[in-house]
């Protein structure tokens, strides 16, 4: 008995009208276009912004913790300038000392854990930049050496130092 393979014509799978990895609009949504729900909410609140703000402030002053958090998030800056001494970074070897300074500032309460993480990211990127620059310099030196014509070695006679 011979098994015959019957190929079916590709039919779109129910619930998947487009091939995997492709949407019906490959260009995507236009830049700056907004969701209909967002537009509707903005229209409803258009003239009420001042009254709602006043009400939130009154609720915060009355002790509502959610209203307090909402008001404080709008008043306080999300990021602040972090000031503490960092040793200079001139090579990748200097990162341990620098990260020690970041850890010490965190332990002393000068910076928050989130700020320490942000500074650590900056230090890491700085070291990667230094390493990339050093690599590029070494590569340019090697390429310059290879571009020079090889100098012929001086011919040395095997018994040139022996007198007869």
What is this entry, summarized?
The chain has 164 residues and is mainly α. The protein has helices spanning 36-45, 49-61, 65-75, 95-108, 113-147.
Walk me through what this model shows.
With 164 residues, the protein is mainly alpha-helical. Among the domains are: 36-75, no CATH class; 92-147, no CATH class. The protein is built from 5 helices and no strands. α2 crosses α3 (65-75) and α4 (95-108) runs antiparallel to α5.
Task: Give the SSE layout.
Blueprint (H helix, E strand, L loop, with lengths): L35 H10 L3 H13 L3 H11 L19 H14 L4 H35 L17
Helix pairs in contact: 2-3, 4-5
Structural descriptors:
164 residues, 51% helix
Structural class: mainly alpha
What is the tally of beta strands? 0
Distance between the termini: 97 Å
Order of helices and strands, N to C? HHHHH
Biggest sheet layout:
none
Radius of gyration: 34 Å
How many separate helices?
A: 5
